[in-house]
Amino acid sequence: MIKSVSMAKINTNYRKLQAGYLFPEIARRTAKFQSENPNADIIRLGIGDTTLPLTESVVIGMKNFIDELSVKNTYRGYGSEQGSQDLRDALANHYKKYGVEIDASEIFVSDGAKTDSSNIQSVFAPDSVISVQDPVYPVYVDSAVIGGLAGEYIDDSYDKLVYMPCNEENGFFPELPKQKVDIIYLCSPNNPTGTVATHEQLKRFVDYAMKHKAVIIFDAAYSAFIKDEALPRSIYEIEGAKTCAIEINSFSKWAGFTGVRLGWTIVPKDLVSENSEHGELNQVWNRRQSTMFNGASNIAQAGGVAVLSGQGQAESQKLIDYYMNNTKVIRDGLLDAGYEVYGGENAPYVWLKLPDGKSSWEFFDELLNKANIVGTPGSGFGNGGEGFFRLSAFGDANLTTEAIKRIKDKLSV
Ligand code: MLT
Asked: From start to end of 241-355, where are the E strands?
């Protein structure tokens, strides 16, 4: 007699995800258009993917490291899961520029901000209430869905998430949540809106988090694009943030490491949650990384150390300047054409308000069909992004200028 048959079951939370992940969906639509229009000369201002080559210091740093790997005496295998001491020290030193004291043991090197921003949810209780900006970088939401923290998708939103609207009225920075939440994702400079939070705005959230023993997950992946000295580059510039915030950052956009893969997360020892002791969250993240991650590529880390050298930083600044010049071309061009635009002054994204109540995907198709330009529909970042469109400044300068010319010539506001 067969009693009961135990079978493997999939994680049905995956069924709760809405459509495909945004960027593969854009790539799919673009590929379809290209195959139907083989002569179309498509300009890609969609995904924020870097296009300039690695800088000289980075190339030398990586090549030298590969030379060491190619000799028996200097070959190294596994490194420490938390990252090389050289890189952690160099990063700790980097924060001193902003008056922020971080100990190297609080920095965890990784393969990028995207993975860390989702994996970090695993250190919190499964019934945590997560709050996100709307529009939002979709990774925070989708990873909450997969982990079962987002609840059910009802009436265009997940019922366990607390959405914080970001719109023209509030300058694309949210009000504090009305109820008590446990985890608050903030991204500044913001992806997708390209706006940057001020000290005062972040202070309000730090005060809220300290009061409610909530934890802020601060995604600062675009901090290197802040030109205005008055704006904070790290949440730890705000008093008290070390007790309530985790910061995530990346070499991707700063130094062209989107393919190389290197990032870092800071979990301060002072960070506490409702039921954790001093230092416990730092230890738990350490435990998680030691168990599930074997450390970032040592070649990538050698490149990261090179980025942080004096020469490396100067070279990376030139990459940033190049992309920020593209941002200016996009911003000025669109303003000149009569569009309403936001962001793009201290960030590599321009957030365009669509005319005539057009939907984001309608504009995506129109832009692709009439001007052969790929951008990112705002609604792909959530309901709050509907009626908006994101253009990325990471393209080639000449093509960016050409794209704006095409928009002016072929589309009407
Ligand atoms: C974006 O375009 O939003 C980013 O490139 C996506 C990412 O960094 O994962």
From this structure: 245-250, 263-266, 340-343, 349-353
Share of the chain above pLDDT 90, in %: 94
Mapped onto helix, strand or coil, the DSSP state of residue 90 is helix
Tokens at 41, concatenated? 């000369």
Residue 1, pLDDT score: 61
Please give the average per-residue pLDDT across 326-336, as a whole number: 97
Q: Indicate the top mutation candidate among 137, 222, 225, 351 to test ligand 1's pocket, ranked by most ligand atoms within 8 A of CB.
A: 137
d(CA 220, CA 267): 14
String of DSSP letters for 203-269: HHHHHHHHHHT-EEEEE-TTGGG---TTS-SSGGGSTTGGGTEEEEEESHHHHT-TTT--EEEE--T
Please state the atom number of ligand 1 nearest to the C-alpha of residue 250. Answer: 8
Say what the pTM is. 0.96
**5: CA distance to ligand 1 center in Å?**
43
- Tell me what pLDDT residue 386 has: 95
Q: Is the peptide bond before 38 cis (omega within 30 degrees of 0)?
A: no
CA dist., res. 246 & res. 235, Å (int) = 9
Residue 117: CB within 6 Å of ligand 1?
Answer: no
Distance between CA 96 and CA 107 in Å, rounded?
Answer: 14
